[in-house]
Design a protein that fits this description.
Strand 13, helix 9 and strand 14 form a beta-alpha-beta unit. This protein is of the alpha/beta class. The protein folds into two domains: 184 residues, Leucine Aminopeptidase, subunit E, domain 1 (3-Layer(aba) Sandwich); 334 residues, 3-Layer(aba) Sandwich (Aminopeptidase), CATH 3.40.630. Helices cover 34% and strands 20% of the residues.
């Protein structure tokens, strides 16, 4: 178990086993103006470019090395590129026996280092330092945002999902203590950010754990049970006087009584029946009310419109939207944010059997709207429809839904960017929250012609799909819009960034990423502040 501390000690004098410092790349020299001589122009020699150098926070280390620092960086070929890591024995030059140099990439235009760069650098360092008993982070950390970024980055970059792994002697050993060094360590806002970053990282890691769990072990009933256990544990931790989270779990019988035809249609082919988990967090000092809705398809085979086998194993991540909204709600309660939250997580397993939904079936959504199902692999919008209508009934000020909804959004934006669609003011607020959280999101439109396409069914109120190849992500958002009753709403399509099949990068590790948790909490915080 790693403990964390925040101190203002000198990184050169720390007795930790390893000290981590940031490296900035060389700056290009400004071209010199021509100097006129007798009858001909002469070019004045350009000044030397500033070499690769240590970042703020490591001044004492740079001073300790003195003139030896530049040759050292040159000899190991460190360029300061983002994520580049080198480990150097210090031979007593500084107190720690190991110096870990991690690239931060180029600073911002104003010369400052962004929190996202610090977070990624700390994450890269966490995977590089595998057997030190204690570590000191001497990255740029003179503000609350930077201290939080360094702490969160280390925790998330060092995340490992080990539930199914047999312990080995070669497994990396986490340090028993990590110290974040900051000249502002005694400021109240900095200590608050330090504490909150640990809770935020735990929430993101919780979402990753759910996504990474084998789909046979996290079918809808088991997922609902896991959420109930997490709520119970949090409520116990919060203690007396704190606002607790309420939870209701609707099983298949309750869903049938409610008339949640979308969830039942999608989950009908599985031997593990669907669930709808609803959380409530309602502090007395709440100044606003936000509803969160998350897609919880615990495994997506595509149903009778079956997916190709290649890559299907990653479809355990199709519940990443539910994981995000649930963990964001838990985190908001942990932080006791002054905002009321109503969270809806429909859960189903999209499988094949004699009871599975068929292309051509018509489902009646909660509230009565009918939908012609033409593609059973477009199942996410069906379960979200029920939950969105449920969300409108609690009359929130805004609704956000999060879903691994469409491959079309991945085609449009790649696998690291979330698409955000919906009512403009709410979309803008989500994008602002994402910027503060350090997550990459991009606005996408819902063209007016999509309304007609969504209503093109000849046998039902709405068409689930219309098989037009273009604009599938936009069509899906237009379909969801039919169920928000005109309320302020934004849809976050996380199909790309919810899961990483390749190598780790920065604070992001392979598998579930926990994307959108931080953005949702920043949105909730801002909504509460705006209503105060």
């Amino acid at each position: 178990m790693t403990t964390f501390a925040l101190r203002s000690a000198s990184p050169a004098k720390t007795k930790a086993d390893a000290v981590v410092v940031g490296v900035l790349p060389a700056e290009a020299a400004e071209p010199a103006p021509a100097v006129k001589g007798r009858g001909r122009g002469r070019a004045k020699a350009a000044p030397d470019a500033e070499p690769v150098r240590l970042a703020p926070g490591a001044e004492d280390v740079a001073e300790a090395y003195g003139r030896r620092l530049a040759p050292l960086l040159a000899s190991i070929g460190h360029t300061g590129a983002a994520g580049e890591v080198a480990k150097v024995p210090t031979a007593g030059v500084i107190g720690a026996p190991l110096l870990v140099l991690v690239g931060l990439g180029a600073p911002d235009a104003d010369g400052t280092v962004a929190p996202t760069a610090v977070r990624d650098a700390a994450g890269s360092a966490a995977r590089a330092v595998t057997n030190a008993a204690s570590v000191a982070l001497a990255l740029p950390a003179d503000s609350a945002a930077l201290v939080g970024a360094a702490t969160e980055g280390w925790l998330l970059g060092g995340y490992r999902f080990t539930a199914y792994r047999t312990e080995s002697a070669t497994d990396p050993v986490a340090p028993s203590e990590v110290v974040v060094l900051s000249p502002a360590a005694r400021r109240s806002e900095v200590t608050s950010a330090f504490d909150e970053s640990q809770h935020r990282a735990a929430a993101v890691a919780g979402a990753r754990d759910w996504v990474n769990t084998a789909p046979g072990d996290l079918r809808p009933p088991a997922f609902a049970d896991s959420v109930a256990a997490a709520v119970a544990a949090l409520n116990k931790d919060l203690g007396r006087g704190a606002t607790k989270i309420g939870i209701t779990v609707h099983d298949e019988a309750a869903l049938a009584e409610l008339g949640c035809g979308g969830i039942l249609a999608v989950g009908g082919g599985s031997s593990a029946p669907p669930r709808l988990v609803e959380l409530t967090y309602a502090p007395k000092n709440a100044t606003a009310h936000v509803a969160l809705v998350g897609k919880g398809i615990t495994f997506d085979s595509g149903g009778l419109s079956i997916k190709p086998a290649q890559g299907m194993h990653e479809m355990k991540s199709d519940m990443a939207g539910a994981a995000a909204v649930l963990q964001a709600t838990l985190l908001a309660a942990r932080l006791q944010l002054p905002i009321r939250i109503s969270t809806f997580a429909p859960m189903a397993e999209n499988m094949l059997s004699g009871s599975a939904a068929r292309p051509g079936d018509v489902a009646r959504i909660y509230g009565g709207t009918t939908v012609e199902m033409q593609n059973t692999d477009a199942e996410g919008r069906m379960i979200l429809a029920d939950a969105l209508v449920r969300a409108t009934e609690v009359e929130p000020d805004a609704i956000l839904d999060v879903a691994t909804l469409t491959g079309a959004m991945v085609v449009a934006l790649g696998d690291r960017v979330t698409g955000v669609l919906g009512e403009q003011a709410t979309v803008d607020a989500v994008l602002a929250a994402a910027d503060r959280a350090g997550e990459t999101m991009w606005p996408m439109p819902i063209p007016e012609e999509m309304r007609q396409r969504v209503r093109s069914s000849k046998v039902a109120d709405l068409a689930q799909v219309d098989w037009v190849r273009w604009g599938g992500g936009l069509y899906a958002a237009a379909f969801l819009r039919e169920f928000v009753a005109g309320r302020p709403w934004a849809h976050l399509d996380i199909a790309g960034p919810s899961f990483t099949g390749g190598a780790a990068r920065g604070h992001v590790t392979p598998g579930g990423t926990g994307v959108a948790v931080a953005t949702l909490v920043e949105f909730l915080r801002a909504a509460g502040d705006a209503g105060a």
